[in-house]
Amino acid sequence: MNTRITHIASNTFREAVRDRVLYNLIAFAVLLSGAAILVGQISIEIEKLVVINLGLTAVSLFGIVISIFIGIGLVSKEIEKRTLYTVLSRPVRRWEFIVGKFFGLAGTLVVNTFFMAIGVFGALFYVAHKFQASDSWVLVALYFIVLQFLIICALALLFSSFSSPLLSAVFAFSLFVIGSFSEDLRGFAQMATGATRWLVTGVSYLVPNFSALNIIASVAHGRPVSGQLILHNSAYALLYSAMALSAAILIFQRRNLK
Amino acid sequence: MPTIEILGLEKTYTVGFWRKKPKRALHPLTLAIEDGEIFGFLGPNGAGKTTTLKMLMGLVFPTGGSARILGMDVNDPRVKAQIGFLPEQPYFYDYLTARELLEYYGRLSGLGGKDLSGRVQQMLGRVGLPEMGGVQLRKFSKGMLQRVGIAQAILHDPKVVFFDEPMSGLDPMGRRELRDLMEQLKQEGKTVFFSTHILSDAETLCDRVAVIHLGELRGVGAVAQLTSNVHGKVEVVWQGVVLAALKALGVECHVTGDTVRAVLAEENLDAAIDVVRRERMRLISVTPVRNTLEQYFVESLKHSEKSAGSVA
């Protein structure tokens, strides 16, 4: 990777660490250990299902909140505080800045997810006392969650490149909610007719398909994940993130930093 | 070839939400700054100084004209490796220590390894913060941040340095140190372009200055050359009372005890001395007042406001 992008990414990561973003891990650990103890006492046979469901949902929600709330400030905060001026007056191209910021936040989320994954597996071991081969699908679900984070980060950066932090948060969160129901939207489009059908189909393909990336319920029941789905979801998430990032770069390249 | 060449650079913003109106921040500006010069860019707040600097840094895009630094277009990435920039009231990543910040900027400028750590320590010393390298910037005062800003601007040994209001936030000692630093940069063969509204600094430092007001260039040249065009004034001091006849000439008098001091235009001097003698006051001194950049500045601003008023 280009060294300037690496430096910007590592500085973004350092900012997240020093701003105590990773402290969310403490809240996560408290939540998961509490849940594991409680579930171990009140559930019979379904402890694993509950722990996987709860653990992965928490990983997803904690990460989504972090990616939206840090992502929306990545560019606007730098403009508002004028820290960007001293960066862009160096041999740093605007696209390098955006890409560096993206990788910095993505790196933060990967590290965060890594520690949360340890927590999920710890809780799983606590309630089941052993690991099974089907537990490895939890890793795939975690991978898909990280793919969701990449899309959200890219979208938050896109909104942050032209809008205020508040509006960016609203846009990003709305897209996350709509995207989580994109399969339902596609189903609705099938049933609709005329212009509505075209409109809903268009929207359902435009918004990120988070439903396809959410396999929490499936892995909680120990169902395997097909290699094709892994490949398809990886390509989809990378392409969608790249497109959102390119749009952010196109807007940012033309922006006057008043 | 000038080091900085500004050719008809202009900027018009659109303001308003529904009914967008054009607002001209900078009229076509043409300037040439030679190698090794300390060039002052003067103007009151809102004159267009920062807009010009931002266009030179590629932060704001001009609506017309162009600019070249060291013979290259300002948007050429090769230029950025050879320039340093201190923005107005700089704010830095406050979670970093001064040393970490300078190392980060150094790496972005292509420095690295042991050279970088040595250079960072040297710069901290040069701006008077040799012991502060390990302190987080959130604990720094405004003046200390300004010093860090100066350090980051000269860290990579640039050929051209741009300072936007570099004296703001500095105490008198800090201002003096910065003046010395600018002189040193000049001696090292660097070109320094700085904007300010503190005229005494510009007067003592600059080889040449440009005055800008309401986005328009009002004058450019050496300080002595600009101030020579200002109408001369004289100070007349006498013992006695304020004379009505002098007031009639539009002279403003200041009384201290039984001494009266009046500063008046050269063309009124004979008439004023006649009045003082006629009233049998004791004339103490007649001293020419040295023309200052401030006088030139005030006069050119008044002139531009008048012409703007007459156009309106």
Order of helices and strands of chain B: EEEHEEHEHHHEHEHEEHEHEEHEH
**What would you report as the Rg of chain B, rounded to the nearest angstrom?**
24 Å
Structural class label of chain B: alpha/beta
- Judged by helices, strands and strand pairing, the structural class of chain A is mainly alpha
Major sheet description of chain B: 6 strands, mixed
Give the strand line-up of the largest sheet of chain B: 6-7-8-3-9-10
Helicity of chain A, in percent? over 70%
Most extensive interface, residues per chain? Answer: A-B, 26 and 32 residues
Count of helix runs of chain A: 13
Number of strands of chain B: 14
The helix content of chain B, as a percent range, equals 25-40%
Q: What are the main properties of this structure?
A:
heterodimer; A: 258 residues; mainly alpha; 13 helices; 81% helix; 0% strand; globular; B: 312 residues; alpha/beta; 6-stranded mixed sheet; 11 helices; 36% helix
